[in-house]
Design a protein that fits this description.
Strand content: 25-35%
Shape: globular
Helix content: 25-40%
Distance between the termini: 41 Å
Number of strands: 10
Largest sheet: 7 strands, mixed
Structural class: alpha/beta
Oligomer: single chain
Radius of gyration: 16 Å
Number of helices: 8
Amino acid sequence: MPKKTNKDFWNIFYKKKLAVSKPSNFAVFVKKFLKNYSSTIVDVGCGNGRDLFYFKKNKFDTMGIDLSKNAVSLIKKRLKYTKDKKKIIHSDFARFNYEKNIKKKFSIYSRFTWHTINKKSEETLLKKISKIQNLEYIFIETRSDKDALCGVGKKISKNEFITDHYRRFINKDNLVKKINKNFKIIYLKESKGFSKFKQEDPCLIRLIAIKKSIKI
C-alpha cells in the first residue's frame, strides 16, 4: 500500500528539515483570490506549515492536517498558543471527519497533496466533503499526468508511480468530471510555470471550485 511508503518518506523528510519555508506561489495566488474572506482555510497535507503560516500572517483563520507526525510537531513548536496547537491535527486528510470537527464555514486548500492519495482515497474524500453544508471552496494545485515525472519509477498503474515516494499523476478531465458532481469550477488551468524550483518546472493543474449550493 503506497500510503505507508509516503508516511515513512515524509516523516524522514520533515525530521531532516528539508522542506522549503517560504510560502508557495499557489498560496500567494489563493490569498489574492480570497479578498475579505472570513472563514477558515483548512490546509490538507500542510507539511511544515509554509503556506499555513503565510495565511495566518495575512489574518486568515487556519487549520492544518498532515499524516506526518514530524511535520505536525514542527508546526506545533512554532505556535505560541494552545488554541492554535489544537488546530494542527495528525490525520489522513482523505479520511478526516470534517463535519464532526469543523462547525463553522471553511475551505479546503490542497497544494501538492491531491496527487499523494490513491483513487480510493480520492473517492472517499470527495464523497465525504460533498455532504458538508459549511464547506465553501476547494483549492487544488496538483501534478498533472502531463508532468515530466509521470512514468518515472516503479509503475503501480497507468498514472501511479513510486520513486522515493508515491505519486498519482492527475488527469485534468477526470478531475473536472469528479469535482463537477457537487462543485462549480470557477478557475482551471493546466500549465508549467506555477511552481519553478531550481531546475524543476512541473506541469500542474490549478483548480478552484465552489460548492454548488453557495451563491457567488
